Amino acid sequence: MQSKAIKKAKELLENEKLVAIPTETVYGLAGNAYSTTAVKKIYELKGRPSNNPLIVHIKSRAYLDEVAQNIPEQAYRLAEKFWPGPLTLVLEKQDRVPDIVSAHKNTVGVRVPNHPLTLSLLEALDFPLVAPSANTSNHISPTCKAHVQASFGEKSPYVLDGGPCESGLESTILGFKGSEILLYRHGVLSKELLSAFLGQKIVEHTHAAVPESPGMFLKHYAPHTPLYFYDDKAFKAAQEQNLRIGFLNFRATNPYINPENQRILSPLGSLEEAAKNLYRFLYELDALGLDLIFAEQLPSHGIGRAIHDKLYRASQK
Ligand code: TXA
Ligand code: MG
After folding, report:
1. What are phi and psi of 57, to 5 degrees?
2. What separation in Å is there between the alpha carbon of 282 and the centre of ligand 2?
3. What is the mean pLDDT of residues 148-171?
4. Rounded distance, CA 307 to CA 279, Å?
5. Which ligand sits nearest to residue 27's alpha carbon?
6. Which domains does the chain have, with CATH numbers?
7. How far is the CA of 198 from the centre of ligand 2 (A)?
8. pTM
């Protein structure tokens, strides 16, 4: 039995309209991957540059060959182990995937998202969904319905409400070049974990001069309030100027700052919890209209690497 919400989402998508969908990572702005009309609407609503390709979300591994071809053996192994889940594989594209989806590249990013509502929705549809994060271009990715609505205002599409996202950070993106495996974007699944699973080195390709994955563009995922990594000197200078300072800390509060302007990512020091809270706290701090936000540097292992990467990009001016 399909719920009313899924029926509504299905109807909209079948009519080439957009729907914001929940995933385990962040909310996606979804449209029919085979409809150029729907895909155009996504680029327009996000204000996304047309050279930044979209991820195709499929209902199961069995569907992979519909959208990709000449798939390397390691990709099948990864899909079997991690799908549904926060891993996007960049593979050679099938012709039926419109060029607008892949920004005219011959590759396509594919994943099976892990959220029960979105999996039921995909099951009910006879086409896959493209879904970039459901935020305006370069802004913070949404991890709940309210973020999507805040990002798009009155232009907000219908949101299939699946509650807060479980992981709260984007999927990890891998690509294949000859026998090499490339990491295009840090995400929920760490490079160490994926590399250990494959028994193979993964080559970081995230800061390449030629952005094969525009997630590589440095300035990205930013709040409107300027964000800096914490350092004593800058903090003292900001205090002397009586600036209104926000804090994004890992475990401990800062005794010199109004508690209302602080967010603690994980009092117990869990990087997974920190990832889940990251975008929500950035939204909340941004809404306070502060002069600047100082973010603490987190341990850079496991999912901490992806958190660091997002904060680093948010700090680029
Ligand atoms: O967790 C996620 O992946 C979320 C949820 C909604 O699934 N989606 C997401 O989409 O983060 P988006 O559009 O915000 O980021 C997609 C990233 C971009 O950096 C894009 O450049 C890269 O994937 N990408 C997509 N197709 C690619 C391709 N063919 N080659 C290289 N990079 C690609
Ligand atoms: Mg995004």
Report:
1. -105, 120
2. 15
3. 96
4. 10
5. 1
6. 4-168 (3.90.870.10), 227-314 (3.40.50.11030)
7. 27
8. 0.94
